[in-house]
Every structure is written in structure tokens, then in C-alpha cells.
Write a structure and sequence with these properties.
The protein is an alpha+beta fold. The chain is 17% helix and 29% strand. It is globular.
Length: 838
């Protein structure tokens, strides 16, 4: 059967797409006047998660300027045994690949859309012939999907729908559904939370064999005269370590960049800024000349080793004190050699050749070795040794002048160059520097970066004074106004002395503040090799990548909820997917867990303390925290949460106080529990009345579903009052409600006391009492989830168990705002409310 698509020459492209939509109403992109085939050779793909009348996934492949499109109800799966139905629908415009948003009611496809995955695809064979034949094989390079996939048409001529099957081909990326469900593991938008290519995050193919064992490849070398100048290649600061790709990893040396130009056997040592420093280091120049090269450009770094490690301070002492015999020249690249320009030669070949040239080098000329271990391990080792970090270079990369992405620097400490813009005198007396006032360039303008007042001794303080006083000017050189609150504590206000921004300092510091100034800084030395005009803010230190979560679930097939068929695997995966949101509600709070070893239809039991059954990762607190009781437990990490779920914990309940201030609750909770015969509308009305009264008392409250029959109204507090005072307030509050509106509210426990009424449970505010945590599942048929919601959603809620283990995470993937975002900064004093309630 030929595909039912707009390939008829008499039918304009995207006509079916356009006829189905009113573009004056829907935010979806209108079809262009003409489809433009991709020109850069990279075909894009996108998978859009679409919650319309039901949840499904729209799988789209770019071809001939449009997006070939299939609706996949269950979404893609890495298990080759899982054949997923894919309904071939109308082509979409290429611009649709970036569409996220809400398609309005009464429009075609009304509902919410997010970009679940995106990337490029490679057809295997001719894709147009594949579409006609009904068999399309292709490779995906996405943020969630990778490897070889296939679409096969299964419909017959005359069928109402053009049905296909989407499935994973067997390759290094294939894995059983029981081990990994990509739909549940990664439910969110990649535009809201970009992941980067999965092939780089978690490569499956074996790492290419290192070519050092092969012959040097100089095929890309070019015959050329020796360049008169060479701008060095510079590294980009890596916010996180690469987790894939073939990288040469070296130690980041704490020194000065230095290039060597050899012409007719004579050497000139050139700084990064192009200055000739040969006269400063005659011994080093002589050792480079001893390599007996006719013409060359070498790249490296000079430093001084102290206890076997590079020391920037020792290098400065060596330079300033003319102790050049201690300076070591580490060479890491060979850019030109004897009539051949090597810049297009792969890095590994350049380094192999350089290593051979340095085999018999002198005592102070060394090859910068690279290391075979994974970057994460090397980064940890470098940090432990106190090294500045790592250099990571693409193994096959050419040499490119200027800053590039093929060379990365990974910093284990925050450290960079800053321009000296002023100073203060130590103790207010001339002769020694007390602090340096610093800046950096942004958009070509000099900006304040704060100050540094430590890191030198008296000798260096006098030397800095001698260097800076000749540069004094009358006014601050900053081209952006300096906020008074951002100045170096202002204790010496008026004592600043400003200088022409001509010197550069190397500074180590704890962090950048929100205002863009450094804090807890320490001076490391002057950078006389770097021009001030090139000093820009670099950012933070490199973060080691978080290890990928791998779940090994025991008895994954065990049914937890017979009414829905939810299995233990479903429950554990739910907690894995919700952990980032749930942990702030659990961390550092004593917990009680409801465990269901045989499922929620069988015996359940509470666990509040450490017992025989070990749960690795849970924190067991000191007995002295709560004398005469077993140790309290808390769930502080994702490992602890999943460990508990592995041990059949279904519900997680928390105290109203943290471990740190156990006797001072930081919230009060009102649990709205409907009695027999109470319709849901009355529960909603009760929540609104509770909120209204709290507002009259000057208290802001947040709302969540209970996961069961009712709702929870939560009021964050400043932890000042003890449990007795907070419980007393909650009791008085509930009794006031019941007295004021007795036909709606009950303040007395017991089923007979709440018939036709909403019981507002204040007992949960006593010491050691607990309430189901936000995002906790409930051990009840259907397995509802306690979901934080906005007050504006109250009227739209259908029940206290509106979201379940099976639907909660999908719902959250479409939410762009956290309705509880302000909860964490919403602590309030209860004392004024107590007075008003009396």
C-alpha cells in the first residue's frame, strides 16, 4: 500500500496539515509557502510528547523539507522484543520540530505538547524507497534515543489508518524493557532540561583503539614556510567532564604558556601574548636548541615543581629571583616541523612525533604525559592532589588558533586572572598593599569583580606597592557603575586608590556571588604573561558528571496493587523518576514508612526506626536525639529512597520538624478527611474555607492532594515554637471552624462524628506524628499520589487521588512551573496568628 501522504504533484505539500488547523487560534506553526530541503546534510528528528485525549508520542523524521510523522501511543522502547504501534499521520512543517505549548480546546490535537527528544537521524538506504516499500531503517542520534531503529508498515490496502510498527534493532544500544524503560526513566522535556547527546553521555560502542600503537599519520601535513607568528590554541572551561568521546587527558599545569619558534636551529621563547622571553630563560632556550631541530613551532607550559607538583608561587619566585634553573618546560604539542605545517594533522599523531623528538631531551625539557584512566577518575585524583585540574583534548582534533571546544580545561578549584584596578594600603599606611581591587571585561567594558586581601607576605606586599603606585589615577577605571553594596565590605570606604588597568593577578576564590563579584579570594601571583584586555569572567569550577542511575530491582514482577496491576518495578521506577522533586520534602526529617512485603492487599506495617531489616543508605540518627526511643531514620539521598522502595516501602510519612531542630516544628498541617456521604465538592469548599481563615490570620498556605480521599493544607513556619504550642494552635483553629460552620466541619475524630462532614485532623501536629510526604504513593487500591498543586487548580481537581503511580510523573512532565516554588522561602511566625485566634 502506498503511504497516504501528500506526494501527489497536484496536492501542495502539507495540505492535509493545513486543512486540519485554524492558525488564527492554534499556536502551532503554519506551513511555509514552499518546503525547503535541508542543506547541511544533517536530517533532524524529534519526538514530541502529546497529552491530547490520551497520552501518546509523535515521532517525526525530517525529509525533503517536511517532517514525516507517526503517532506512537506507547512511545519508543529500547527492547527489540517490544513492537510499538505507530500510526502514520500527515506530514508536518520542519518548524514543528521546536513546537512546545498548549493546543487550545476544540482544535485538532487539543492538549499539551513538549519536546521529549531531539537530534539527527541517518537513513540506512534510500529513505524515499523505504517509505514506498513500507520499510524504513535508520540510526538516531538523540538526547534519549540512539542506535539502529526500524519502521515497518503493517496495514493493508483499504485500511482506514496507515499503521506501522516502530521497534529497536539489535545493536549495542538494545536492552530489555525489564532493565530500562526510557519513557519512565526520562519523562521530561529536553528543552526545559537539556541532556546532551546520549552517545556522549553514556556511549555503548567500545572505545576506539589508541593509535599510538600505529604509525604516525602525517597525511594532513602541508608543505609551507615557517610561520613568523603563531596564535596558540586555547581551551574552553568545561562546566562538566565529558562522559564520552576520545580525549587526550593531561594534568593542567600551574604555570605560564610558552611557545618555542625554531628557525635555522636558533630558538625564540614566545609567550601567549606574543612577547619574546628568550632572554629571561637562556638555559631553557639552550635545551630546546639541543633538540637539533632546523625549524619548528612547539607549544607548552613552563612551571616549577614543588614536592613533585606544579607551583605557581614557586614559578613566580623563580622568575623574579632569576632562579631559572628550577623552571621546567613541559611540551604538549608540535605545530610545525622542518618545512611541514602540522596544524591539520590529528593531535595524537602530533604528540607521537613530539614524544619521539623529546626522547633524549635535557633535564628541564619534558613531554606532558597523558593518562589512560577515565576523566572522572583522573579529575578526582587531580583534585585530591591539589592540582588545578585537567586538560582534555580531542584526540583527532587539528590545531586551531584561538579558543575552541576541542580543547577543554576542567578546573577542580575556582581560579582565574583578574585585572588589578586599584588597591588599599595595609593598615592605612603607605608601603605595603592591604588589598587589591579587581575587575574583568564583559562586552568590552571593565566591570567590578570585588577584591582580594590575602595570599601574600610582607615582601610581596611591598613589591605590589612598588608596581602599582606609579600607575595611580584619580578615578576608578570601571566602565560600569560600582554598586556600593558590592564593594569589598566597605570597611575602608574612601581609602581606595585607583590605577590604570595594566596588571593582571591570578586569584583563587570560593565562588562568584549573584552580583558577579568573587568571595573568599586568595592572591596567587601576577600574570605578567597575559594582557589585561583579554581578561573575562570564566565561570565556575568543573563538575564531575553524576553517575547514571542503574536500577536492579529484586522481584520486579511482584504485583503491589492487584486492582491496577502495578508491580514492584513500577513503584521503584516511579520513586526513581520523582526523587529530585521528592527529596527536599524528605531530607533531614524523621520518617515513618508503610511497608507492604506481600502487596497492599495483604498485611501492612509501619516502620519508624532502624530494625533488623537493613536498608542501605538510610540515615539512622543518634539515640540522644530522642532519648528512650530507638534511633530515628531519615531519607536523605536517592539511594536511600530507592533502597527503601526495594524493601517494599510504599508510603513515606514525615515529621513536622527536621532532625536539626527536632522540638521546633517548621510547619503546621491540616488534613481534610471527608466523612461518609461527603461529596468531593464539599472537600474543595472546605479547603477554600481553611485557606480563607488562615489568610485572615495572616498565614499563607500551600495545597496538596493527600493521595487518598482528601486534601492537605500546609503552612510553613519559622521553627520557633515547640510542638505543644503549634498543636494547641491547630486544635483551636479546627475547633473555631467546627463551631463557626458546624454543618460542614467536625473537630472530633471517629467515623460517627464526621458523617456528612469534613474532619480537619489537627492531631498530626503533635510531636512524632507524621503526614504523607509530597509525592508519596499511598498503599490503597489505585495507588494515588500526594501531589502539590496550586490553589488555582482546586476547582479542577476531581479527587484526592487524582494522580497515581502510573500517571503522576507523566502529569509533571508537562508542568512548566512548580506551584510550591515559594514554599521553601515562606516560613512565617505563628505568634501573631495565635493572638488573633484568641
Amino acid at each position: 500500500m502506498a503511504p497516504t501522504r501528500d506526494r501527489n504533484p497536484s496536492s501542495p505539500p502539507l495540505s492535509r496539515y493545513g486543512k486540519k488547523r485554524d492558525f488564527s487560534v492554534t499556536p502551532e506553526p503554519a506551513p511555509p509557502a514552499a518546503s525547503s530541503p535541508v542543506e547541511n546534510g544533517h536530517l533532524g528528528f524529534v519526538v514530541q510528547k502529546h497529552w491530547a485525549s490520551r497520552l501518546h508520542y509523535d515521532f517525526r523524521l525530517e525529509l525533503d523539507g517536511v517532517l514525516l510523522s507517526w503517532a506512537v501511543p506507547k512511545g519508543p522502547c529500547y527492547d527489540p522484543k517490544e513492537k510499538r504501534m505507530a500510526i502514520h499521520v500527515e506530514d508536518h512543517p520542519a518548524d514543528y520540530a521546536g513546537f512546545e505549548g498548549t493546543i487550545p480546546a476544540k482544535q485538532y490535537g487539543a492538549g499539551d505538547v513538549i519536546v521529549w527528544d531531539r537530534g539527527t537521524w541517518e537513513p540506512v538506504g534510500d529513505p524515499r524507497e523505504g517509505m514506498t516499500a513500507g520499510k524504513l531503517v535508520f540510526r538516531l542520534h538523540g538526547e534519549k534515543l540512539a542506535g539502529l531503529w526500524e519502521l515497518v508498515r503493517i496495514s493493508k490496502p483499504g485500511d482506514r489508518q496507515d499503521q506501522w510498527m516502530l521497534f529497536k534493532k539489535r545493536d549495542a544500544w538494545a536492552q530489555p524493557l525489564a532493565e530500562y524503560d526510557v519513557i519512565k526513566a526520562l519523562p521530561d522535556s529536553v528543552t526545559a532540561k537539556p541532556l546532551g547527546l546520549i552517545e556522549e553521555r553514556a556511549p555503548r560502542a567500545a572505545r576506539p583503539a589508541r593509535s599510538e600503537s600505529s604509525e604516525i599519520d602525517l597525511c594532513a601535513a602541508v608543505s609551507a614556510p615557517l610561520p613568523a607568528r603563531l596564535e596558540p590554541q586555547l581551551a574552553t572551561l568545561a562546566p562538566s567532564l565529558p562522559t564520552s568521546g576520545d580525549w587526550v587527558t593531561e594534568a593542567k599545569l600551574d604555570g605560564y604558556r610558552m611557545l618555542s619558534r625554531v628557525a635555522k636551529g636558533r630558538v625564540r621563547l614566545i609567550t601567549r601574548g606574543g612577547h619574546d622571553w628568550t632572554a629571561r630563560f637562556p638555559a631553557l632556550a639552550a635545551e630546546v636548541e639541543a633538540l637539533a631541530l632546523n625549524s619548528a613551532w612547539l607549544d607548552g607550559e613552563i612551571t616549577v615543581l614543588k614536592n613533585g607538583l606544579p607551583s605557581f608561587a614557586a614559578l613566580q619566585d623563580a622568575i623574579d629571583g632569576n632562579a631559572n634553573q628550577d623552571i621546567v618546560y613541559f611540551l604538549f604539542d608540535l605545530v610545525y616541523l622542518d618545512g611541514k605545517d602540522l596544524r591539520k594533522v590529528p593531535l595524537w599523531s602530533r604528540r607521537m612525533l613530539l614524544a619521539q623528538l623529546l626522547h633524549d631531551a635535557g633535564e628541564h625539557i619534558r613531554f606532558s604525559e597523558d593518562f589512560e584512566a577515565p576523566p572522572t577518575q583522573l579529575f578526582e585524583a587531580a583534585s585530591g592532589l591539589g592540582l588545578e585540574g585537567l586538560m582534555l583534548k580531542r584526540r583527532d582534533a587539528p590545531y586551531e588558533s584561538g579558543r575552541t571546544q576541542t580543547w577543554l580545561k576542567a578546573k577542580s578549584r575556582l581560579r582565574q586572572e583578574l585585572v588589578i584596578c586599584g588597591f588599599t594600603a595595609r593598615g592605612g599606611k603607605d608601603g605595603e598593599i592591604g588589598s587589591l581591587l579587581l575587575g574583568y571585561y564583559a562586552d568590552g567594558r571593565l566591570r567590578d569583580a570585588g577584591s582580594v586581601g590575602t595570599g601574600w607576605d610582607a615582601r610581596i606586599a611591598r613589591d605590589l606597592w612598588a608596581r602599582l603606585t606609579p600607575l595611580e589615577v584619580d578615578a576608578a577605571p570601571f566602565e560600569v557603575d560600582v554598586a556600593r553594596s558590592r564593594r569589598w565590605a566597605r570597611r575602608s570606604a574612601g581609602s581606595e586608590r585607583w590605577v590604570r588597568p595594566e596588571l593582571v593577578a591570578e586569584v583563587e576564590f570560593a565562588d562568584w556571588t549573584a552580583d558577579g563579584v568573587i568571595r573568599q579570594a586568595s592572591f596567587r601571583g601576577l600574570r605578567i604573561d597575559k594582557p589585561p584586555g583579554g581578561v573575562v569572567r570564566e565561570g565556575g569550577k568543573t563538575q564531575a558528571p553524576e553517575p547514571q542511575l542503574k536500577l536492579k530491582i529484586t522481584h520486579p514482577e511482584r504485583v503491589v496493587d492487584p486492582s491496577t496491576g502495578v508491580t514492584k518495578a513500577d513503584l521503584v521506577r516511579y520513586y526513581a523518576s520523582i526523587a529530585e522533586r521528592m527529596l527536599p520534602h524528605l531530607k533531614a526529617r524523621p520518617i515513618a514508612m508503610v511497608r507492604a512485603p506481600a502487596g497492599i492487599a495483604e498485611d501492612l506495617f509501619f516502620q519508624k526506626h532502624a530494625e533488623r531489616t537493613g536498608m542501605p543508605g538510610l540515615t539512622a540518627h543518634d539515640r540522644s536525639l530522642w532519648p528512650n526511643h530507638p534511633p530515628l531514620l531519615s531519607v536523605d539521598t536517592i539511594d536511600a529512597l530507592l533502597s527503601a522502595a526495594q524493601m517494599n516501602a510504599v508510603e513515606f510519612h514525615t515529621w513536622n520538624s527536621t532532625v536539626r531542630r527536632l522540638d521546633k516544628p517548621d510547619r503546621v498541617i491540616f488534613d481534610l478527611d471527608p466523612g461518609e456521604g461527603v461529596k468531593w465538592g464539599r472537600v474543595q469548599e472546605a479547603a477554600l474555607l481553611v485557606q480563607t481563615l488562615l489568610s485572615e490570620l495572616g498565614l499563607h498556605a500551600w495545597l496538596k492532594t493527600s493521595g487518598g480521599k482528601g486534601l492537605h493544607v500546609v503552612v510553613p513556619l519559622a521553627p520557633r515554637l515547640d510542638y505543644d504550642a503549634v498543636k494547641s494552635f491547630s486544635q483551636a483553629f479546627v475547633r473555631h471552624l467546627a463551631k463557626t460552620i458546624p454543618e460542614r466541619f467536625s473537630a472530633t475524630a471517629g467515623a460517627s462524628n464526621r458523617v456528612g462532614k469534613v474532619y480537619v485532623d489537627y492531631l498530626r501536629n503533635g510531636k512524632a506524628q507524621t503526614t504523607a510526604a509530597a509525592f508519596s504513593a499511598r498503599a490503597r487500591p489505585g495507588m494515588g499520589v500526594s501531589m502539590p498543586v496550586a490553589w488555582e487548580q482546586l476547582n479542577d481537581l476531581r479527587s484526592g487521588a487524582q494522580w497515581t503511580v502510573q500517571t503522576a510523573r507523566e502529569y509533571l512532565s508537562f508542568q512548566q512551573q512548580d506551584p510550591w516554588a515559594d514554599y521553601w522561602s515562606g516560613s512565617q511566625s505563628l505568634a501573631p496568628a495565635i493572638k488573633r485566634l484568641k
